[in-house]
Amino acid sequence: MNKTEKLNVVLAGQANVGKSVIFNYLTGLHQHIGNWPGKTVEKAEGTLHYKGYTIDLLDLPGIYSLSTYSIEELVSREYIALQKPDFIINVVDATHLERNLIFTLQLLEMDRPMVLALNMVNLLKGKGIEIDFEKLENILKIPVVPVAAIYGKGLTEVLGQGIDLTKKNLKPTLLKYGKEVEKQSEELISLLEGIDLSYPKRWLALKLLEKDEEIEKLVKNKKPEILEKVKSLCSELERIHGQDSSIVIADERCNLVSRIAKEVMRITKPRKVSFNERLDNLTCHKIWGYPMMIGILGLVFLTIFLFGNWLSSLLAGIFSGWQIGFQSIFGSSLLSSLVWAGMESVFSLIGIALPYILPFYLLLFILEDWGYLARVAFLTDNLMHKLGIHGKACIPLILGFGCNVPACLSCRIMETRRERLITGFLVTLVPCSAITVIIMGLVGKFVGIGWAFGLYFFAILMIFMMGKLASKILPGEPTELIMEMPDYKKPNLKTVILQTWFRLREFIYIAGPLVIISGIVIAGIHQAGWLPAIANFLSPITVKWLGLPVITGILLIFGILRKELILLMLAVLLGTTNFAQVLSQTQMIVLALVSMFYIPCVATIAVLRKEFGWKRALGITAFKIIFAITIGGIASRLLNLI
Amino acid sequence: MKELSLLQVKEQEEVIIVSVAGGQMATKRLADLGLTPGTQIKILRKTFFGPLEIEAKGSRLVIGRGLAAKILVRPL
């Protein structure tokens, strides 16, 4: 009997080439999204069965090269070199062939069997582009399969061709670059002989000529004298070509790709102003683009906010009914109340996930798939530069107004670790929907709507100041925006729904444990009767410095779980929802201000830990507590003067 | 021939890249996207203080203002 054979396959390609559509088509629900060990890079794996083979498919991040520009690039090339997948599926956007092939050449240098999945061939005709597939195959010397991923067309052939390659153990024939580069890389290859490194020799040689620091480190550990030779070869290249050797190699690739594109591609009809461009004349307009953006994003927010409030109060009603049932069965002993606290935490997790995070992700992925998020980045780049980050950061920051949790997770769209950290930190300063509940329910209702908006304005001001500060303090250069402007396309519903589902599951995995544990711990403290003692302990801060009633110490502890608990517990502890009877206007503003900044909620801390590690997560938390207390005290004194 | 920075080029004009005066990282990144010296590009859209949208080799790219200032070009 034949045992099923296992194959290890990777999907590699640039961003916006339809990689995730292919991945979702092939693996469906049999996929797992996690992180690369120790990295804040998403790792999407899935399994499928084809012709008696069990194929483990890994979707590498969308990248533009295999250098060290971003963490994604490093992770990808290490994976290909060390895990040696049975074959690579290089997904290429046929309508942007030339730009895509630059990456294809880099993948070919990795010396693994490879199939080129030429996606979006269904759009070629409309764009007036003709591609000679056979000729491309002959030049690249790897199988080229025309694919229309949104219809699932050509995908099984891609797999079939890949399996054929592994049967014959066919590796790609390498394409030749310019004379000098080839000569020098051969010289290096012979020097590298006998050194035990997982990377292919020619690739190493090219990377050394490109002055790749990571590879230099690797080689230095094995045979440091090679680096001397590399130096002289690089300067020789630089002497001949008159520019940095890393640029010489990149140039060689571009030139080779230009020649290939000229051979295989023909534009059959003159380019017309497309629907795309006409739409962009509106959405990216230097003036009208902004009101449009505010309109579109405002609509998205309003939808989420209205839907979220409706669903969350519906859920709250259901769950509170269960509490009475639970108590009538299990009584109100210490144990049963702790169990209930654990269950309550689960409910509160659901109460965030379903009403807010689910619609957030759904609408976000629709906007992304449609191509609008790139336009938002384009429009807001200037503004974001004032924060020391670039346009793409706008997306996490906007998300933060709904919920900080998905916002922190979406910081991954930033390229470098520095940018991710700054964006993540700023996101925790954005008032989320729970804080909106406090601001509106306390300040908006009892002090005046003007003061409520004033608080928002203050938060945004603080975000700008902190962004400036953080980008000054953190080492490293700010990165400039370089991104592709994708064409608008109809969102692929299956991809959107699958992505939403896997993200939602990820949120529950990350935030769940910490939310449940802290829920039980706080309930335990409550049952033990320690809350008043803690409130008293905190009173030098809450009463003396912030000028608030003693019970706010208890509120702020509950607020760690969920910010809106501050308002709910206030009503419970005071026995009234008419807060004006017990709090002065100044106290309300100070309480709202402190609630806004004082600590990220537990779920956010969990995500911060996952993305940046314990040290940074606790660092941000500690900073925020000190910051909130300082600002609150100052505000209390200033407001009392008025 | 007269060289100017990409920022000085008007919308809808076509130019050829002469050199990139940015750091190695940025230059390399541009090369990965196909923007090397000798490449013909067209300015599609400019904003008042923000990035530029350009077209090169059949695809559209957005480039931050600071980087665009470092790309030297000459008219066709």
Describe the structure.
The complex is a heterodimer of chains A (642) and B (76). By secondary structure, chain A is an alpha/beta fold. Chain A has 3 domains: 5-168, Rossmann fold (3-Layer(aba) Sandwich), CATH 3.40.50; 179-267, Helix Hairpins (Orthogonal Bundle); 290-480 and 494-641, no CATH class. Chain A has helices spanning 19-27, 71-83, 97-109, 124-127, 133-140, 155-168, 179-192, 201-209, 213-222, 225-241, 245-264, 275-283, 289-330, 334-370, 372-385, 394-400, 404-409, 417-427, 433-446, 449-473, 493-527, 531-545, 552-559, 565-574, 585-597, 602-641, and strands at residues 5-13, 31-35, 42-50, 53-59, 87-93, 114-119, 129-131, 144-146, 265-267, 482-484. In chain A, the strands form 2 sheets. Chain A has a 7-stranded mixed sheet, with helices on both faces. Chain A has a two-stranded antiparallel ribbon with strand order 7-9. In chain A, helix 3 packs across helix 11 (245-264), helix 7 packs across helix 8 and helix 21 packs across helix 26. The radius of gyration of chain A is 28 Å and the shape is elongated. The mean pLDDT of chain A is 88. Chain B is α+β, with helices and mostly antiparallel strands and 76 residues long. Chain B has one domain (4-75): SH3 type barrels, CATH 2.30.30.90. In chain B, 17% of the residues lie in helices and 41% in strands. Chain B has helices at 24-32, 65-68, and strands at residues 4-5, 14-20, 40-46, 52-56, 59-63, 71-75. In chain B, strands 1-6-2-3-4-5 form a 6-stranded antiparallel sheet. The chains are: A alpha/beta (642), B alpha+beta (76). The interface between A and B is large, with 47 and 38 residues. Strand 10 of chain A pairs antiparallel with strand 5 (59-63) of chain B, so a sheet runs across the interface.
Compact summary:
Chain A is 65% helix and 9% strand.
Please tag this protein with its features.
heterodimer; A: 642 residues; alpha/beta; Rossmann fold; Helix Hairpins; 3 domains; seven-stranded mixed sheet; two-stranded antiparallel sheet; 26 helices; 65% helix; B: 76 residues; alpha+beta; SH3 type barrels; six-stranded antiparallel sheet; 6 strands; globular
